[in-house]
Amino acid sequence: MRYFLFLILVCICNTFTYSKNTIVVNIQPSEDFNIKEVNNILPKLKNSLEDCTSENIEFKLLSSIKLKDIEKVNNSKYRAEDFILKANNKNITIVLTHKDICIKYCRGRKNWGILGLALAPKYKACVVSDHRLKNKSRDYWKVITHEFFHSYFKAKHCKNNDPSCIMQDANGHANFKNKFKVCQKCKNRK
Q1: Neighbours of 126 (CB within 10 A)
Q2: At residue 94, does pLDDT exceed 80?
């Protein structure tokens, strides 16, 4: 009987020892992004975020951001910083949009077009656009993971030169074709 109670106690202790934390991630689409599109992305995104955080991920869908509230530049690009300022910044929030987004200045150019932006540590939100991606269904979750890693862990770009690491800087090129994971050095650096 004692042996049986001991086994139960060991099993209970192991359950608590190995249980994962849960991270709640808000998904806040802009009004041009519909719920069906959000639901299509979530399974790949969940797998990717759980792999790079070693935690359970739960998503909470928030109401859409109105595009009329975002500064439009040159009648074609939307200011990425504005999406972050309009997002829910109480918890980690990922804003999704199809619109072309830009930042004020980058690499000596004004209104530089980008795939995504995180303004960590000041804000807990990031914005990600699929506008510049060649293969949206294959690569959008990768860009989202990249910006999440900046926002949640305040991580920098990959210094490891691992060609498969999602955290490599795009350097002005939207090429995520051969990127599949966050490398071990970047995971440990969080």
Answers
A1: 27
A2: yes
* Residue with token string 């995971």: 187
Range of the domain at 72: 20-156
Strand partners for 23: 57
Q: Does 42 map to a domain?
A: yes
Residue in 57, 43, 54, 90 with CA at minimum distance from that of residue 190? 54
Q: What is the dihedral of CA 85, 90, 91, 96, to 10 degrees?
A: -20
pLDDT the model gives residue 171: 74
**Cα separation of 44 and 180, whole Å?**
11
Residue 4 lies in a domain: no
Q: In the prediction, which pLDDT does 19 show?
A: 60
Spatial neighbors of 65 by CB under 8 A, at least 6 apart, are 28, 29, 30, 31, 83, 86, 87, 95
Please report, as a single letter, which amino acid is at residue 2.
R
Read off the pTM.
0.85
